[in-house]
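User: Second chain of the day. Same drill as before.
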Amino acid sequence: MSEKLRLSKLMTIKGICSRREADFCIQNGWVIVDGSVVDTLGAKVQDNVIVELSLDGKAYIDQKISVILHKPIGYVSSQPEKDYSAASELLLPENRYSRFEDGKSLSRSDLSSLAPVGRLDIESKGLLILSQDGRLTKSIIGPASAVEKEYLVRVEGDITDEALDLLHKGLYLDGQPLKPVKIMEIEENLLKMVLIEGRKRQIRRMCELVKLQVTGLKRVRIGSLMLADLPEGQWRLISHDEKLKFLK
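Assistant: Same format as last time:
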């Protein structure tokens, strides 16, 4: 016998949308379960049902905005801290990277509703995704996510084979083992590290455990999204095709 779940929860598990988006779609009669519309909030269904969105529901989810921001040092990725600004404050029409002319006009109110996907600490710079799309957020930072995050890490200290081996696999943080990290020294004192998790200040804390001090940290890739030549402090829209690569 399959388990009964709230329809909104099942929709998030299936990666259709976030819980809030699911409730909105249910209220509007845009959710179809095994061929029938379900428009009752809190409705429970078997976990093996087929859940689909109507054309209106798909249009609502697909119009959700997601952007890449090149976050500078000195900005926090989420809630503002004393004397510091949130990275989202850089999402202004005048900071849009003009090289990407996608024809979609965005207002300040559109941009103010975007939330950071994951963290990038105040001392770090590079690629930060901000989004209205719960599906994208879950695919990148959800508990089952295996999306790679690539960093360039400048360090001081002796980069030994033992240190690289431990950074790759063998360290614990907060009493829990870390997932394996791809790591290589690409030039003197510069490491490339590729993670599939994102614990708080993970790279800095890992390096401290092997007697290395991080002096510079830049995220250059999340999944198939590259920072590339996006200037510091500027942003661009994530295209529909780019988003689909995360949602497959």
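The chain has a mean pLDDT of 90.

User: Great, on to the next one.
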